[in-house]
Write a structure and sequence with these properties.
By secondary structure, this protein is mostly helical. The protein has a single domain, classed as Rhodopsin 7-helix transmembrane proteins (Rhopdopsin 7-helix transmembrane proteins, Up-down Bundle), CATH 1.20.1070.10. The protein is 75% helix and 3% strand. It is built from ten helices and three strands; from the N terminus they run βααβαααβααααα. The chain has a three-stranded mixed sheet. α3 packs antiparallel against α8. The protein is globular and about 70 Å long. The protein starts with 10 loop residues before the first strand and ends with a helix. Bound molecules: 2-acetamido-2-deoxy-beta-D-glucopyranose (NAG). 2-acetamido-2-deoxy-beta-D-glucopyranose (NAG) binds next to α2 and α5.
């Protein structure tokens, strides 16, 4: 390969969700709204959990961590998107692109890991109710959360560093609304063999591992619930899982839509894939707080208390 002939690319063009000028104001308003709702909703969850002693349990600590991760997730994608729509420019610099890639990988993985940790927590709570406090000690919870952070931060770093080895010599158009790994690899003009290998081996394991953990946990939860004698016990066990199960279903159904459905060949820029990506990257983090606060009496109580206290403070 003759490197002198290659012009090095220092910036990319993000096509965004739509290239039609008349749709830009609508998209801007929509995503600004989604961003504000997501950040506020998740902040309220974190504050409610932090301020209510009843919610100082592993399940709610994990939920607060999931909210932190969701805020990070949308903040990686939406502000740059709004900036590009607002300024009418599609440019993203090489450095910005790599930063986005790193944090997107980190938070997407982290959501996945935290959902698995939460499933494990539900499994222990339901099948070992008497030993729950002994098993889920605060040290173990901290270890699970810290472990998830370390693994996902390292994994995202490896992918990002491997990407810096590639040369990009044009075209530089990314038919997406943020810098995701697969569209970037398609633009590289040096060999992406190692990157693809790592993507399949490690990313595959890190995605499938938590999924298997969630699936197995719920399999044993279902067995434990079926074995219970009292209908009230069954009811209580089941209702402590519904919020988590809803979030898990939403996360995986949209993620599977993005990564397993073959890209539509009819539209070259893959409009339908981008819509699935929006569901997975933007809508799921927005809905998590609603799923948890609408379906859960404890969470509703804590939020109510938090909001009443805030209005009392502002009145006095
Ligand atoms: C995240 O989880 C850890 C361990 O359970 C907990 O100590 C910490 O407070 C949580 N973070 C938030 C923001 O609640």
């Amino acid at each position: 390969m003759d490197r002198r002939n290659q012009t090095r690319i220092y910036e990319f063009l993000l096509l965004g969700l739509s290239e039609r000028p008349e749709q830009q104001p609508l998209l801007f308003g929509l995503f600004l709204g989604i961003y504000l709702v997501t950040v506020l909703g998740n902040l309220l969850i974190i504050l409610a959990i932090g301020s209510d002693m009843h919610l100082h349990t592993p399940m709610y600590f994990f939920l607060a961590n999931l909210s932190v991760s969701d805020i990070g997730f949308v903040s990686t994608i939406i502000p740059k998107m709004l900036d590009n729509i607002g300024s009418g420019s599609k440019l993203i610099s090489y450095g910005e692109c790599l930063t986005q890639l790193y944090f997107f990988g980190l938070f997407a993985d982290l959501d996945n890991f935290l959902l698995a940790v939460m499933a494990l927590d539900r499994y222990v709570a339901i099948s070992q109710p008497l030993h729950y406090a002994l098993i889920m000690t605060s040290q173990r919870c901290a270890l699970l959360v810290a472990g998830s952070w370390v693994i996902t931060a390292f994994h995202a770093l490896v992918h990002t560093l491997l990407l810096t080895r590639l040369s990009f010599c044009g075209p530089n158009i990314i038919p997406h609304f943020f810098c995701d790994l697969v569209p970037l690899l398609k633009l590289a003009c040096s060999s992406t063999y190692v990157n693809n290998l790592l993507l399949i081996l490690v990313a595959g394991t890190l995605l499938v591992g938590p999924f298997v953990c969630i699936f197995t946990s719920y399999f044993y939860i279902a067995l434990a619930v079926l074995r219970m004698d009292s209908p009230q016990g069954k009811q209580r066990a089941f209702s402590s899982c519904t919020s988590h199960l809803s979030v898990v279903s939403l996360f995986y159904s949209t993620a599977i839509g993005v990564y397993l459905c073959p890209p539509s060949s009819s539209s070259p820029s893959g409009g339908k894939d981008r819509v699935f990506s929006v569901m997975y990257t933007v809508v799921t983090p927005m809905l998590n707080p609603f799923i948890y606060s609408l379906r859960n009496r404890e969470m509703k109580g804590a939020l109510g208390k938090l909001l009443r206290r805030k209005t009392l403070f502002s009145e006095s």
